[in-house]
Amino acid sequence: MKPIIYDYTLEELRQWMLDNKQPTFRADQLFDWLYVKRVTSFEDMSNLPKMMREQLDDQFRFVALEEITRFESKDGTVKLLFGLHDQHAIETVVMRHNYGTSICVTTQVGCRIGCTFCASTLGGLKRNLTAGEIVAQVVTAQRMLDATNERISSIVIMGSGEPFENYDATLNFLKIMIHERGLNIGQRHITVSTSGIVPGMYKFADENTQINLALSIHAPNDELRSKLMPVNRRYPFDEVMDACRYYIAKTGRRISFEYALIGGVNDQPEHAEELAEVLTELLCHVNLIPVNHVPERKYVRTSRNEIFEFQRILEEKGVNVTIRREQGHDIAAACGQLRAKHMEKTTR
Fold first, then answer.
1. Is 274 a known active-site residue?
2. pLDDT of the chain, 348 residues: tens digit per residue
3. 3-state secondary structure of 71
4. Among this protein's residues, is 335 annotated catalytic?
5. What residues form the annotated binding site for [4Fe-4S] cluster?
6. How many angstroms separate the CA atoms of 210 and 86, rounded?
7. Which fold has domain 66-347?
8. Distance of CA 330 to the CA centre of its chain
9. What angle do the packed helices 304-316 and 269-279 form, to 10 degrees?
10. What DSSP state is assigned to residue 321?
């Protein structure tokens, strides 16, 4: 199939213009139509020559996503299920906060990491998304928000999939998002979350960006983490923590640790004590996440009192910690839940 126009960074579009004997400023005009005016066809790009519009239409696909369904929570969270050209489906979540609007994007169809508490892994990994398919999630959501004069101000790459197993596409997506001629999202308003793909963590540290890194840690030791996250058998706990230390030393930036609290599994006081010991003297922040119920999984949520006790122990040990505010609970906004329901329905 023809490539998606959103796959291309501005620098790549400028090169395309040169290859086609066109001035490079045409690429800047094209980029403006894509990300500032956010048109949905090449024909609408009125300041480009007609012959060029026809050539672009002949060589590139424009629309990458088809909205299958949309759910809106009482708290303003919107969950979108998008269909792709090959009949696969992905999820994107838009979250409204008192400090702005954020979007959670997906980087893969499904996931092979195998976290035992997550719906994203149900059915395994189908394929990587292209950079354009990731970009299109943001552009499509921004068009939706244009109607109410809202702007996406931050991005979290925490949807389905492991971004560091789709590294090049993720990096091109980031380059497009932060470009001042495009959506111009501030680097410090973007967070990439990884399950601990050690080579990707080192590589990302060396990219010299201001983009935030989050690690899904979910356990304070090697044995328990391997039970919850099979990827830990490939990249053991100590190696992951060494990569975290390298990232902090290389970038001077704080790293976030995502910790899903699972009733009776990783949420006891001894787990909090051990986690605090591991994180001592690290420039970091812990985000406690009460686990979402997934029908296909047997885990239960940690009680409210136990959540606060876990937080208290970490704070007492000098660890910076917050409890994630839940959003979209009434619309199954956790990663993979809506797609799993769609897969079950289409299979039937």
1. no
2. 899 999 999 999 999 999 999 999 999 999 999 999 999 999 999 999 999 999 999 999 988 799 999 999 999 999 999 999 999 999 999 999 998 999 999 999 999 998 988 877 788 899 999 999 999 999 999 999 999 999 999 999 999 999 999 999 999 999 999 999 999 999 999 999 999 999 999 999 999 999 999 999 999 999 999 999 999 999 999 999 999 999 999 999 999 999 999 999 999 999 999 999 999 989 999 999 998 766 666 788 899 999 999 999 999 999 999 998 776 565 555 555 555 555 555 545
3. strand
4. yes
5. 111, 115, 118
6. 35
7. TIM Barrel (3.20.20)
8. 21
9. 30
10. E
Copy the structure tokens of residue 195: 């399950």
**Out of 72, 91, 104, 258, which one is annotated catalytic?**
91
Domain boundaries for CATH 1.10.150.530 within the chain: 5-59
Backbone phi, then psi, for 298, in 5-degree steps? -100, 0
Of the candidates 106, 104, 90, which has an alpha carbon nearest to the alpha carbon of residue 165? 106
Contacts of 88 (CB under 8 A, 6+ apart): 109, 126, 127
Task: Please report, in range form, the residues annotated as the binding site for S-adenosyl-L-methionine.
Answer: 161-162, 193, 216-218, 292
Residue range(s) occupied by CATH 3.20.20.70 in the chain: 66-347
Q: What is the architecture, at CATH level 2, of domain 5-59?
A: Orthogonal Bundle (1.10)
